[in-house]
Amino acid sequence: MKKKVNKIWACCLILLGFISNPSFGQEYKDIAWDEPRSKDSAYYAMRERASTPPFGLKKVQGLVEQRLKNLPDEALVDYDAGISRADFDKLSFEEMFTYTMIYPEIYSQACAERMFVFDPQSKIFGHLLFVYNGVFWSDRQLHFMKKNRKRVMDLITDQATRSNTLGLNYKTALIEIDAWESIPFLVSFYQKNPKDKDILTTLLQLLKTSNFGAFEQSKIYNKLYGENTHSDSWVNFSRANEEYIIESAQALYKKRKNQ
After folding, report:
1. What pLDDT shows up at residue 231?
2. Which residues of 73-83 are buried (b: 16+ CB within 10 A; e: fewer)?
3. DSSP letters along 53-105, please?
4. Which residue in 143, 216, 217, 257 has its CB near the most CB atoms, within 10 A?
């Protein structure tokens, strides 16, 4: 049991950005199956870093710790590691937000392996890293976010503005709730934090979710989401690509706002 609990904490901590050190073996021209170089590792650590909401944090952490003590030992299938329904329902809206952001309830029995790409800081990826952590939001957590999408979006933008950090969990949540209304915020936030190119990835995912016709006909779409692409597909960062993504996202926002 202790071994299983430690393994789950490890996967959860990856989500929170405290662990960023998987090791693999073979290297290719653009992809490394080994530990990334130090400069690349630092960028991956930034990509994996999550934001921690302050609302009822100690209370939520206490509930999570109690739940982890009672998880099944060495489960061989994916399962729900969430707190009880009674405890979940007693949480305030803000506490549910904190709980959802720091503790995805669905645990996969093995953290997914992934590729490390050389010079990730010079690339724009088509997908975020959330799904690699071996933990996923449950149906009730997704329902909570989608049912309260405006309030969730407002909390994310407010907390990101206060901390000047938009964590992996916040970005992923905006995609999950199709937060197209957040596009002006994302563009402004990116312009202040241009090193975080996963904000561009978030804009790309919002474009993809919206089935934006002009975007689906673009070369960038084909390279990231067309045939023979995968979850680590990327395009090189350039001012032209940056401008295209931002302008496309702004066009999507304008279109949906006027509908």
Report:
1. 85
2. eeeeeeeebbb
3. --TTHHHHHHHHHHHHTTSPTT-SS-EE-PPPHHHHHHS-HHHHHHHHHH--S
4. 216
Beta strands 123-125; 79-80: pairing state: unpaired
How would residue 109 be classed by pLDDT, with cut points 50, 70 and 90?
A: low
Over residues 162-181, the pLDDT tens digits come to 999 999 999 999 999 999 99
Percentage of residues in the chain having pLDDT higher than 90: 68
pTM for this model (two decimals): 0.85
The CB density around residue 193, as the number of other CB atoms within 10 Å, is 14
Q: How many domains does the chain have?
A: 1
Q: Which two tokens stand for residue 210?
A: 């919206």
DSSP 97-108: HHHHHH--SEE-
Give the span between the Cα atoms of 36 and 42, in whole angstroms: 9
Residue 27 has pLDDT above 80, yes or no: no
What mean pLDDT comes out for the span 184-201?
98
- Angle at 125 (CA atoms; ends 35, 159), nearest 5 degrees: 95
What is the domain range of residue 51?
A: 2-257
Which residues in the chain belong to E strands, given as ranges? 31-32, 79-80, 106-107, 116-117, 123-125, 135-136, 234-236
**Sequence-ordered list of residues with C-beta below 8 angstroms from that of 61, at least 6 positions apart, any chain:** 102
Please say whether the dihedral angle defined by the alpha carbons of residues 17, 19, 24 and 27, taken in this order, is positive or negative: positive
Cα-to-chain-centroid distance, residue 57: 20
Direct distance between the N- and C-terminal alpha carbons of the chain, in angstroms, rounded to an integer: 53
Q: How many CB atoms lie within 10 A of CB 255?
A: 14
